[in-house]
Structure to design on (152 residues):
């Protein structure tokens, strides 16, 4: 007799091993993309914050801290560095004028676009090593992974 939704321990162990393999592979790909990008002068936390700001602007520093994730002081220092580099600026929060929000500058938008283009080109090189069926499978998995990470 099977119970709906119940997984046998061997299935759970197999899924955990596959999940670990996926995690290690994704980490190696991200490390490769970070090493190959032209924006190596930017700290990884700054890069993540910049990408988040691009997606969510205007965004408060507290939200950046929660979503990167990092501490509030680290988010403040990170935004200050991005601001000093001319990539972002602070302006009054449109919802609460007493607070500030962070938005991209034109240079920040150009940097995000160039970094995204370069990362996509590097990833395409990696995917070109696969046969057509495996490449299509990985690309379709991207949509599924996006759904998994939407609320993170």
């Amino acid at each position: 007799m099977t119970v709906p939704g119940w997984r046998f321990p061997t299935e759970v162990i197999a899924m955990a091993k596959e999940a670990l393999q996926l995690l290690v592979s994704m980490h190696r790909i991200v490390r490769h993309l970070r090493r190959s990008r032209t924006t190596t002068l930017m700290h990884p936390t700054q890069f993540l914050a910049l990408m988040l700001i691009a997606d969510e602007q205007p965004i408060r520093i507290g939200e950046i801290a929660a979503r990167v994730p990092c501490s509030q002081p680290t988010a403040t220092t990170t935004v200050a560095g991005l601001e000093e580099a001319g990539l972002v600026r602070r302006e009054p929060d449109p919802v609460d004028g007493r607070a500030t929000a962070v938005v991209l500058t034109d240079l920040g938008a150009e940097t995000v676009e160039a970094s995204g283009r370069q990362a996509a080109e590097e990833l395409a090189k990696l995917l070109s090593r696969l046969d057509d069926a495996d490449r299509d499978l990985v690309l379709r998995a991207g949509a599924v992974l996006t759904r998994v990470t939407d609320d993170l």
